[in-house]
Amino acid sequence: MVEVQDVWRSFGAGATAVHALRGVSFTARRGELTALRGRSGSGKTTLLNLVGGLDAPTSGRIMLDGTDLAGLDEAGRLTMRRDRIGFVFQSFGLIPILSAAENVGVPMRLRKVPAAQREERVQTLLALVGLADHAEQRPTELSGGQQQRVAIARALANEPALIIADEPTGQLDSETGRSVMQLLRAVVRSEGVTVLVATHDPQLMELSDRVVELRDGQIVD
User: Fold this and answer.
1) DSSP string covering 27-74
2) Residues β-bridged to residue 4
3) Which residues, including other chains, have CB under 8 Å from residue 171's CB and lie 6 or more apart?
4) Which residues, other chains included, contact 147 with Cβ-Cβ below 8 Å and sequence gap of 6+?
5) 72, 92, 165, 206: least surrounded by Cβ within 10 Å?
6) What's the whole-model pTM score?
7) Domains along the chain?
8) Residue 181 near residue 174 (C-beta atoms within 8 A)
9) ∠ CA 18-59-3 to the nearest 5 degrees?
C-alpha cells in the first residue's frame, strides 16, 4: 500500500542544512496498522507529511497504492489527498460551528456526494465509532475522546485506502487514548484500510501490526 524508498528531506542548504529524514525506506501493507515510533524531532511528522502528499521529499521515492507521488502535480496530489487518504490530527481539527454529523460529512460535500448517500454514510460511520447518539452535538459538547472519534469517522468518509494519524492520542489521557487506538485497530479490520500512525507512547505499540522506529531521521532496525 505504502512504499517509501531511500527518502531524504532536508531544510536549508550547505553547512546549515537540517536533514529531517536520512535515507528512510519502509513499507506498510494493505489492511495493516503500522506505528511510527520515535521521540519528538525524530522525523515522524515529516515522514507522514511526505506520505500524505502534503510535502515533497528532497530525494527518494514514495509510492501510494501503486501511484508515484512525484509524478503528480499539485492538482493530482490534492485529488489523492481528498479521495484516497484520510487524516487524523492530534488537535482533532473539527469545525466548531458544525455538528458531529456535519463534520463527518464535510469530505463528502467536497466531492459533491448526493445528500441521501452522504447522510447514510455519515450515520454508518458515527455508529461505527460509537457516536450514533451524538450526531447533533457540536465539538464543544463532546469530550476529547469523542471528538477524536468524530475525526476518525470523518477520515473514513470518502472510503480512503490510507489513514494517516499524527499523535492521535497526544491530547488524551491514557485510558481514552487506548480506547481510540482500539478503535483504529477495529477500523483496520472492518474497513480494510491501511493505517499509518505516529506515536511515542509504548503502550500503544501493542495494538499495532508493525512498529517502525525512527531516530534522528533514520529507521532503526
Assistant:
1) EE-TT-EEEEE--TTSSHHHHHHHHTTSS--SEEEEEETTEEGGG--H
2) 26, 62
3) 90, 91, 92, 144
4) 92, 94, 139
5) 206
6) 0.89
7) 2-220 (3.40.50.300)
8) no
9) 115
